[in-house]
Amino acid sequence: MTLLGALLATGGSALLVVAALGLFLLPDALARLHAATKAGTLALGTLLTGVALLGGSPEWWWRAGAIVLLLFVTLPISSHMLARAAARERYGPGELEVPSADAP
Known about the structure:
Layout: H1 2-25, H2 29-55, H3 58-88
């Protein structure tokens, strides 16, 4: 169980790094929103499962389960609300881009 927990925690940490890179590398706000919520939810769920396996006691499982439940409820709802706000304001993909350093 320790090896599986360590693998899940390491994999979750790697997924968090990928999600964080997506925040900087993706071209517009809606794509960055997708990276933050989808990859972030999967990464934190995997990381917390690994931590609960490493912790071993039922208290760890309850804590990790409560955090994962809160993530699964709040992150998709907040992502949906932010995307609707952007759509309501009729932002086009070009208007949500981060200006580059060499732009005039």
